[in-house]
Design brief:
- The complex is a heterodimer of chains A (255) and B (280).
- In chain A, a hairpin with a 4-residue loop joins β2 and β3.
- Chain A is flat, with a radius of gyration of 24 Å.
- With 255 residues, chain A is mainly alpha-helical.
- In chain A, 72% of the residues lie in helices and 5% in strands.
- A 3-stranded antiparallel β-sheet of chain A has the order 1-3-2.
- Chain A contains 9 helices and 3 strands.
- Chain B has one domain: Rossmann fold.
- Chain B starts with a strand and ends with a helix.
- In chain B, the strands form 2 sheets. Chain B has a 6-stranded mixed β-sheet with strand order 6-7-8-3-9-10, sandwiched between helices. A 4-stranded antiparallel β-sheet of chain B has the order 2-1-4-5, covered by helices on one side.
- The mean pLDDT of chain B is 87.
Amino acid sequence: MRIDTFAYSSRWRQVHPGEKGLFTLFCLTAALLSHTPMIPLIIAAAMAVITTSGAGVPWRDYLSIAVLPVLFLFWSCLALAISFSGGEFPLVNFPNLHMTISLTRSGITQAELAFARSLGASLSLLFLALTTPMTEIMELLRSLGAPRLLIELMTIAYRQIFLFLEIISQIRSAQEARLGYSSPRIAMKSLAGLTGNILLTCLSRARQNHMGLLARGYDSELLFLSPRRVWSLRNLIGAVCTGSALIALALVIRP
Amino acid sequence: MTQTIIELQGVSFTYPGTITALDSFSAAVVRGRRTAVLGQNGSGKTTLFSLMNGLQRPQSGAVLFNGEPVRYDRPGLLKLRQAVGMVFQDPDSQLFSACIYEDISFGPLNLGLPEAEVRRRVEKALKQMKLEELENRPTHSLSFGQKKRACIAGVLAMQPEVLVLDEPFAGLDPVMAVEFMAILDDLHAAGTTLIIATHDLDLAYAWADDAIILQNGRLLAQGSALELLTQPQVHTELGAAPLVAEISRALALTGIRGYDKGYLPRTAAELVQAMTSHGR
């Protein structure tokens, strides 16, 4: 939800989503194609700087949003570096089990590369997520010819998530106001009631929404027109040049 | 010249497994006028509106639009729903996109209009409903009143001849209610037929030209709002009377000059003015 708020208040909100999307795509490709950890790390650093000082996301918030995927990446890459069948740098030895946990040189290289690539790729995507609201990303996908059904589902789901959260918080407050969470036993009971109620509320909501659609001439296809945004030639050239340069570097530089 | 725009003839409607919502109901709405639909909760107001927009089909009887029976096939329904715009009580059941602009474009696009025309209408509706500054905000960050305006913009962009509003003033604060009233007055001046369901008798008395009063799914009375809303049997059914009308009646009984000539103030402001100018 925080990501969503930043996307709407981003300084680059008015930039054409196509430009941001193109830039992200180029950087993503460069990061994934790279043979050395260096290029993706540069991309990651550049993305962090662009998103914070360029698009205006406070760096504290940026760090707290980015820390989760980074930690996750770190732990999964660690698994790549570790070997149970012997390696150059033994870590722990279990004589009884005839097993040694160790790091291998090739594993470390592999882990470094995988970590750098994923970091570059995820921070590129985070840049798009923090500067472009969901509706514009959907519009972008729509204009790129993504399946209609998928986009319609995304549109409805995205809007309904917020309604759903509101319903939950309303029911929960109502329960809390009548001491519904005062003891673990009562809390369990209230939670059960909440779950049951959500189902009923969602069903009636769905019926109402369907009526709302029909009342405005819905005929099996959700048609939307997005606000017009202007392409900026300068941004476009910038995105394409930087992006292709990065891809070229990624392909050329080998360890 | 009065011309009926929507007419219901002996319409009955029952929801599956429940009691009858409308029972051989007949009523007519006159083009270009402001009609208030009144009745207790569960008297069939919402069902009546669903029938007017073709969301429900009567089990017996007929719904007429511009004197012709409504056709319940695709083109017929599309035509009816373009001509009769419906604004629901809960704005969340009407907004589908998280982007207001997109949401407003939904109706006109369903009419199969070309892009340029859709954009023109969306921009006009945004302006009409004073939503331009909110255009870039996501739907879920808007207040109740703003969402309500977004809903109406979505309906106005379809350029309906009739606007049906279910409890449009419920949940609005007095400031927003006054603004909203001004919007309705503009639409009325532009020739749109307005139908609202309300529980607010003072509002109905001050605003409406005509009234339709329901009682348990049947028509209790229909006609001029001023006449109907001063009838004791209507007061009994609705559980209240318009305050301004009651005070005027009481003042007329006391014989204060100005009221014996049949002058009926409709709003509190008119009443005060009448009292201060004719009182002594």
